[in-house]
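Backbone-to-sequence.
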């Protein structure tokens, strides 16, 4: 019976490519590990898998019947498998804040303050002296470009840039920035997509001092793409707040060219964004210049403000 590498619920490209890359690495050092996913894939992730010839990882929601799991791209219990207590956590590979997953046995941990989990997995390949296959290198490279917003995100580090350069050479990609823009054009496609699907495209739950908070993010090459949809998006996050019994739901609309975000907010606290970011909402939304990263710029001040 295999173990599994699995990312967070509502998986993004980093979660999926990390699971694939880690599983292959583990197989090369004698472990039987398979990639899995906790939800449906975004258009961007499907684009990456199709470009490099991968099938979607197995959709698997329970892991009690496995030889354990490697948790990738998260360490918050609320974001992982619902039955995480019924399996063994063999390791955590992540680039976010340290969450609340605990274990009763020793585990492997690779946690680094870099822009993408795949950057850490590249370090793991180097550590074990395992050669990265061309297609896996391409997928890893795309995940890093996605998470670092083609190096524009404040989470981007020198390590991320060096890893992209090395992976691009392995994958035979000459103009990786052009591929990154093509990927973001796919990511920005909103026409004909149901409103709830847009809200949930990149959505994470957080427990902030016993307050359930949901934060979604849409990264767009032009914020004007959603001008006609904002009223519907605001109505849907209000409905989601009620359905999920949230304290607050935020949808971060990030303009990657202007390097800032408009945040749509519905909350029990009228002064939520003013306390967290020093910018008050007007009609349920606020533009915050320079904000691009949920994990580094949105979550920490929000969590502190709810203490």
């Amino acid at each position: 019976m295999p173990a599994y590498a699995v990312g967070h619920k509502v998986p993004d490209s980093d979660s999926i490519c990390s699971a694939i890359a880690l599983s292959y690495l583990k197989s090369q050092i004698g472990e039987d590990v398979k990639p899995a996913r906790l939800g449906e894939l975004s258009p961007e992730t499907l684009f990456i898998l199709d470009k490099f010839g991968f099938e979607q990882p197995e959709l698997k929601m329970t892991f009690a019947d496995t030889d354990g799991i490697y948790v990738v791209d998260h360490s918050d219990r609320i974001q992982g498998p619902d039955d995480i207590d019924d399996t063994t956590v063999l390791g955590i590979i992540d680039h976010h804040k340290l969450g609340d997953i605990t274990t009763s046995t020793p585990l492997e941990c690779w946690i680094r303050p870099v822009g993408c989990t795949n950057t850490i997995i590249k370090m793991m390949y180097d550590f074990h002296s395992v050669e990265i296959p061309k297609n896996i290198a391409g997928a890893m490279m795309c995940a890093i470009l996605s998470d670092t917003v083609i190096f524009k995100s404040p989470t981007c580090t020198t390590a991320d840039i060096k890893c992209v350069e090395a992976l691009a050479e392995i994958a035979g990609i000459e103009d990786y920035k052009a591929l990154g823009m093509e990927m973001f054009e796919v990511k920005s496609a909103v026409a004909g997509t149901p409103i709830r699907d847009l809200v949930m495209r990149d959505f994470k739950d957080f427990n902030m001092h016993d307050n359930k908070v949901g934060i979604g993010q849409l990264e767009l090459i032009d914020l004007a793409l959603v001008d006609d949809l904002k009223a519907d998006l605001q109505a849907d996050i209000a409905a989601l707040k009620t359905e999920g019994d949230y304290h607050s739901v935020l949808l971060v609309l990030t303009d990657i060219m202007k390097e800032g975000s408009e945040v749509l907010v519905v909350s029990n606290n009228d002064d939520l964004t003013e306390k967290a970011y020093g910018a008050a909402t007007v009609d349920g939304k606020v533009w915050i210049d320079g904000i691009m990263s949920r994990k580094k710029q949105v979550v920490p001040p929000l969590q502190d403000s709810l203490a």
